[in-house]
Amino acid sequence: MSAEKVISVKELTKRFGDFTAVDNITFDVKQGEIFGFLGANGAGKTTAMRMLCGLSFPTSGEASVAGFDLYKNADAIKRNIGYMSQKFSLYEDLTVRENIRFYGGIYGLTDREIKEKSDEMLTQLKLGEQVNSLVKSLPLGWRQKMSFSVAMLHSPKIVFLDEPTGGVDPITRREFWTLIYEAASRGTTVFVTTHYMDEAEYCDRVSIMVDGRVDALGSPTELKEQFSAKDMGGVFLQLARKATRSDG
Ligand code: ATP
């Protein structure tokens, strides 16, 4: 437990009118950790993640991300993190190269850095031959892997991934997780939401949200023991059954 805490959340709450979307959540994430953020539809994951990315203001509670306070330094947080949203963030009518240049510019990289990073990315993703293809012509799995790499262009300390593998086949999901492991092994902290229970097993620690609260938190092994379940699906089902909220 000696690694540096890069996300620290205390009693964080978000209300929309009288509806409490995120209800008093508390947890820490350590540097280089792969932290799975689970919960049924509507549990509050995206709302919590958007607050941690500095995109939405909490109603109450405290949090620091990458060493910056959520209330005082949301802009510094945005510069120090990568975010892959559920909604696709690449420009479909631009080519692979144009997207990399565009996002590199937004992140403030120099032309030389953009060139270096894009060479690295194209080699890692084996996308060299598609560099001048429109993003919309690429298969979904490649677009997702590219979105991830674009979110990592500015070498952020933490990357937030909101259901990054939704809708792709198991082999492509496995390849995506290889990218996640590589990033974590270089010291990047990965905060990831998923609906796939096999992916929950790949995380160092997992938090499970029910109706806006964090109801369970631990390594997959600890949680399986705590809930006497043979896999993470069994843990999840026991908790999800208690949920009163569903966004379908
Ligand atoms: P999913 O897996 O479906 O993405 P989630 O766990 O990410 O679900 P959120 O998107 O965070 O859940 O939503 C949590 C709850 O807050 C839902 O009931 C949702 O309808 C509600 N909610 C989210 N954003 C708003 C908003 N801007 N105004 C009012 N209610 C909202």
What does this structure look like?
The chain is of the alpha/beta class. It has a domain of 145 residues: P-loop containing nucleotide triphosphate hydrolases (Rossmann fold, 3-Layer(aba) Sandwich). The protein has nine helices and ten strands. The strands form two sheets. It has a six-stranded mixed sheet, with helices on both faces. A four-stranded antiparallel sheet has the order 2-1-4-5, with helices on one face. α6 links the parallel β7 and β8. The longest helix has 16 residues. It is globular, with a radius of gyration of 18 Å. Adenosine-5'-triphosphate binds next to β2 and α1.
Question: Could you give a quick summary of the protein structure above?
Answer:
The protein has 248 residues and is an alpha/beta fold. 36% of the residues lie in helices and 26% in strands.
